[in-house]
């Protein structure tokens, strides 16, 4: 190899190589190709010195217990390949594998390292034709490319500064045909009419524009940024044929009257229709909770959050923010990156408002994932690939950044083959006093926070504003960003700090448009220094720097006198912060690259929206949808339970960490076996002191099949469904606020325009009745591919707050009677809204009184399928039901204790039988239909029941420290990727300790060395070291906990840990990622730091080859440890888990030694991950070090309310009391 480049191949030993086995099975099932073998390798090409490689090979590159390494003999391995395929990311794509490797190696050397990671697949027994099919299956050209496996890798960075900024000479002289050609050649989102406006402006400036200026305006005026479609002036023509048409026309006339009463003079637009209700309610004094500001990119309302401090309730002023976001286009062409940055983008909007994002919802739309690959349309990825990889992208980002995903649903409809719908919604909150909304003034500065800028995401805003075509998958790679969740976590932490938040005058996230929009929108006089923007690599042109949408960046306006303080606070959070712009007073957007003026435009021009748009609308007639009335019989129940829009999505849901943050009120799946889906996500409002008693609650409403038949009723019932779900969960009807997500086909004809118009009219009718206004939203109007269109989509997200103690869940408890709260419908398919409101309020009252203990709003699934999923594995029933399957929106299935006039009794609960109208159901067959239909798309869990473990009893271990103290100090290191530091600190503080979170900084060598010294010093003076959960460096390089393990191995930290254990008689706790680090350093099970050898225990990938997030039963095998003193041996505790590498493995000799020394602390009652002995928690021989996969820190009062028999597994109080004198 050239220079110092070393080539290293890593592969799993055959008995642990589940990835290769799973891929071989997938290729057989999806492509029909039989292979004799498949072996997967990760290859590192690293420019590193021999001595550095020797020090790091075993600790960084591979794990001896589960992996094999080929270094000096790699050429021999390559010679043995039969059919190798090498895959690398395209140039310019962020690669967290390379980043993780380089950051970990930096712990050992100050060399300037470069690396390239390649996934290599060796495939046996296939023809050349089949090999090409496999390549197509494995390689997505949007972000990846095939490379020659045998070719040497060059890692030199030859790129230099690039000042090129092409001027479009002659642009101002182009005629209309020339402008049309210009749009096509430059692939602009602007129309030729927009270009005329641009041309007129630059004629007034007496010069032609340059490529950066055109790109900036193309971004600013895109549908994504300026909502040009929604702001198009409409001339609406009705052709009233049916009774439903009359109602649609009547609501439109009401809208016109509202405009008149409010004095609205602007033309009729979709935007005006969507925002009219909030204007009306504000005028009438019914929307005083709305925060109004020019800065906010998310819905923001003022609330009173109840916090209990020392037994007393306090009402605190908070801002509650929520936001929905789509990344339809990016996810369509690159599912992992597109979906992950969908969540990342949704997070950054409320985060830019200084609120802490703590919960997320995911609602997506796809074609049939069972569609055979050979039926995939040209220019499209297979639906199964999109579905599974998008779920991986969204879940991995949320899991890493530490935002709990409270609800996951996917809607299947053939129209979403045109373009996938990838929608995320988030909840956020912060104390009101932390937020200052101050308009920037001349002299203020703009600081860029967070990630560096690369070519990923260039053209994202304009790309999402265009329709997809057959070439998109190969021509739009630059439009897809790659997320870096640990970086976003740092910004979350910084903005949660009141000291930092209060210094910020104004903030904007780097979403669509990058620097040009994020900084350009902060003030109407800005001067940007593009050469100051930190880059991932050299060679970017000014245009690329200006519009790149590289992720995890924020622009903040700071008073020039506060710069040093803000920089200091950012540095403490391991964040890169750079002064890149200043506020001027000349009303110009100026950008410089060093001394060269790159962009110079008037804000009067930039803030326009291009050419005025006008369209005629021909409102298409509608009639009562067939969807609303279903007459199928009981014999059809199995078919319904197998319907992709009804059947269980459990395996997909369990990919998403739902409990991080220790505030989850309802798990996404509840009941005895966690098979009953929740209809809302609910979480406690986060607070840094006291106990939160107020919960936020969010739901969604929408069905594509109903909306396809009637856009009016589709929008109407989207609102009704979202509100009904909130009420059914115990949230009050009053105070509900909405946000809409619109997704429609390309608006290229009069009839197409009527679809969003009718949807919004239906939504207006329902939301106006309930005084539940949409106060935000997001539109995407490019859902067309060739001759296929997405179904008319208006999702209503509904939000309110509630007293956490009032929140209930759908799963039946079997303690009452089973009933129906029915709301009547009229002849056009609409509800009797007065009756609906009366029912909603009655339901709310009975929930608060404790009479209704389970409830679900009836949705598209119909009454009987919903009763089945509320009962499955919980209880049986014997009912009489007249309508089995119709979507009775606005009605409810309830479990109640005492009769009420508005509740129709359907029947009673039984112990183990399900009887409908006198006919007994085949529970086994129906359960299989409901629970296993999606197993071939998303893998189910493994099951390993706990068997009797013959563990010896060691002598009684010390339960009191020889070094008692009055104040127990707990050090909690937060490494890049840690996400459970707050939860862990609060758990110890509740137990009476003083917890200190220590941020590990590694943005440069100086910070890294300082952090090692600081961490070592803190540990040496502490009583407890607690390493919390997370994904250190995104579980790179090549496995979890490696970065932490190598920090622990550093000489200073190693000595500090020895001091903690020996001199301070201290304790160590590792949870999840922390447990992985303890095992990979030898602290568990050996009690000392050592290099791992081939036969040593470790933690590796789950046997089901996927992430697992759920609540599990764990059995206490021993309480012979200071950590376990408060647990009863043999008792079962329920605890949430969230991990992809939680499988404990060990040799027979190691297992025997662990059992002989009584080191198994807790075991899974049923191990979902294949863990040896079902081990969930392990302790050192002296019991002072405990590692566990279960997140004991995440349970607090009013959480996990749909999981029966949850209680605190109180290792924290036990650990603290170890140091208290009797």
UniProtKB/TrEMBL annotation:
Record domain Phosphoribosylformylglycinamidine synthase linker: where: 184-227
Family matches, as InterPro entries: Class_I_gatase-like, FGAM_synthase, PurL_linker, PurM-like_C_dom, PurM-like_C_sf, PurM-like_N_sf
Keywords noted in UniProt: ATP-binding, Ligase, Magnesium, Metal-binding, Nucleotide-binding, Purine biosynthesis
Residues in the signal sequence: none
Pfam families in UniProt: AIRS_C, FGAR-AT_linker, GATase_5
Molecular function (Gene Ontology), one example: ATP binding
GO CC, alphabetical: cytoplasm
GO biological process: purine nucleotide biosynthetic process
Biased composition (Polar residues): 464-478
The PurM-like C-terminal domain, residue ranges: 442-594
Region Disordered: start-end pairs: 458-478
Protein name per UniProt: Phosphoribosylformylglycinamidine synthase
PANTHER family documented for this protein: PHOSPHORIBOSYLFORMYLGLYCINAMIDINE SYNTHASE
SMART domains to which the protein is assigned, alphabetical: GATase_5
